[in-house]
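hey so u asked for the seq, here:
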Amino acid sequence: MIIGNEVLTAKVQDLNGTHLIGRLRDRGIELRWMATVPDDVDAIVEAVAHARSIARYVFTSGGIGPTHDDVTVRAVALALGRRVVRIPELEALVRRHEREASPQALRLAEAPEGTELLWREGTWYPVLHCDSVYLLPGVPQLFKIQLETVLPRLEGTPMRLRCLYLNLGEPEIARALDQVAMSMPQVAIGSYPEFDRAAGYRVKVTVENLEMDLVDAAVSMLRSELPDGSILRIE
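ran it, structure tokens below
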């Protein structure tokens, strides 16, 4: 979940969602759902509840700072049915890091009750983890660093992938794709048209599965079903 009014009002362009998609794919972790929600407690609670109902792991990005619009900690706690508590270890950290530990600065010491602190060398503030919900910062540079704290803890199996680049349009290859998709439903086949002539192809077809043998079998079937000469290259 990307959290922040600034994203929804185009004041800031979200970079974290795109980065997360790529890194989850690298790790072989399926992304089930993504949402951008405002700095609103009810909206965040609803989004967290939905995400937890369909996924094993939940990531949030943004809203964990010391200002009035940073409500993610409170909202996640509500969604998990937990109290917000001040964690002594975080309080000591904030007091060391900030020149003046104002009441606002000390909001950084608050977290859902039962939160686990995940530390990474080179960063002064940890990732907050509670009930498989990982609270990450909204600043892209920090998000990237903190995400790498979390990913090694998660289980995943990278997908095997082949890409076919074709010189025909989708209407001309649809029958072949239908045949292979019906014959091998366990293999994910995607078709993506390209309208930029400079790309050098008209459609990119992707073939994915956890097992390379199945991917190769589907590619072989595609080669036999597609019109002769339609495949420019396979990667």
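Helices lie at 5-8, 16-27, 41-54, 72-80, 88-97, 140-150, 170-183, 212-225. The mean pLDDT is 95.
lmk if thats what u needed
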